[in-house]
Amino acid sequence: MPKVRSLRTLSLKKDYAFLMMDLIRIFILETGLILLLISLFAIPLCFLDYSWRVHDDLCGSDHFPIVLEHLFTSAQQRVPRWKLDKADWSLFENLCQAELQSKMFETVQDPILTFNTVLTSIADRTIPKTSANPKHPSKPWFDDACDQAIGDRKKSERRFNQQPTTENLSNFRIFRAKARRTCRQARRTSWKKFVSGITSRTPMTKVWNMVNKIKGKNSKATVKHLKDGNDLLTSEKDIANKLGETFAKSSSCNNYREDFKKVKKQKEKIKLNFKSKNGENYNKLFSLEELKTSLSKAHDTACGPDNIHYQLLKHLPDSSLEALLQLMNNIWESGDLPSIWKLATVVPIPKP
Fold it and tell me: Transmembrane segments in this chain: where (predicted)?
């Protein structure tokens, strides 16, 4: 086989190693499937770092793609997020009406934790979440129609592989063309919608972030290691502890000048002359109207460690809001913050 000998000569001449050499299936519309000898080369330095496999789906192509996987890449799990656009808010409000009442939190030891647990349980039953498993970044144009079209294409492909008849081949060609057309139209529509929203005041950061999303590029880089002097931290716990220690030092009183420390120490010894009967307006209990006003002005920021999104609170019925209001007023009077409110999610953003 002259071509095989040529490949062997090339590998010896360039000091390449065979990463793979195998028979790969190629799909031809007229004849079905044929076999083709495929080979991949790698430099010796990377030879043991990768594995390969043949993708089980054509992905709309005429051949089965070859997937290269890095053997030493640690699996990173994403934090699941609420799919608020697919929430069943009517069912959510009905369940809150039945399960979130003031009398339910009168005898529990930690009312806020119980409230969060019940609210999260209701949200799990009425609002879907994104997957926690790592995958390719989702594209903004990929909608339910694209998902359905690709599912039909895969289904017809499996049917043809099981029963390679002319009819099944024809059906596969139809569904493949439909999937291509659906995805193409979705990309075009998404791009037109995005471009129409760009003005002279649109920040360039927002423009490029959207362009990268359309291309399928993930701009979020995960911190996988951190250098501390001569030590290299690789575990998430060690990295988090080191970042927390660094943040604590940045906010420490040890950073003050010595003359300021002396003045600070002297001033802190002076007792404040403040007497009050706590009748000021800022000491009064919160009202339901104040709670609703605050929620209406709140922006939909990311969830904290309790995984309670602002939209969950904004869709609470009045009876559940009154239960939450009573819990907050109890905290306001006692001054004892719940332990779950003392947690925060800190996202370190490296400088460019």
Answer: 23-43
